[in-house]
Fold:
Amino acid sequence: MNCDIDNPTFQTQDIYLAAFLLTVGHELLRISPVFNGPLVTFIFKRRGDMESLQTEYFSGEGLAPARKLFESFKALKSLAVARGTE
Structure:
């Protein structure tokens, strides 16, 4: 995770957090492969509520529509697999 609030992007390798952020309306800018492995980094455009949403997610208090959350997860997983094998 990238917690530098001066950075215009927010980065995470946690696909579940990324799916939550995408579901609640954050803009995914790109997916970048991590060197020496199958992992990827999800890079979002930073907004002012990013840290509070991250706290809500990890505390279990974050709310998102279930169907949309699953759709976001499936889409990110497909993109991650495609990007991780390039």
Summary: The chain has one domain: 9-84. Residues 66-84 form the longest helix (19 residues). The beta strands are 9-12, 28-33, 40-45. The radius of gyration is 12 Å.
